[in-house]
Amino acid sequence: MTVHDPALGSQAVSRLSQLDDLEACVVIYLRLWCAGPQGRCAMRSDLTIGLGKSRAALTTKAFAAMVDLLALHRRRPLHHRALNSACLHPDEANFARFVANAASGDREDALWLAMLMVRADLAPQLTAVAADFGLRIRQMLVQRPDPATCLH
Hints:
With about 150 residues, the chain is mainly α. It has six helices and no strands.
């Protein structure tokens, strides 16, 4: 059984600074990925600094699988703001919450959010990849000595 935190999800999130570190990393990496080859290179470089080369490659692969599933089977496009924007698009906030739920083991909520993004039959696969990615990012955040993470 999941303990419900009444504060979670009860407030509108409109700024990147309102997210916890894991969620902020998810949004920043989404923006970098969508920025094209230079952004993806910056993401891989940041992951390599935080996780080492081999674990960064696995983390990038998990993120790519998640984005590929979304691109191929999305219900609608996932919107995002510009890389340097302090504002947060609602899609970004939901995507970050989805990954955080998946990584924390809150499978039911993660699956529910996944079904809003992809077909129901693909929601478990998307949730599994999101859990893998989110756990790797959480591990990186714990290992980093500097609390300023994920390029912000």
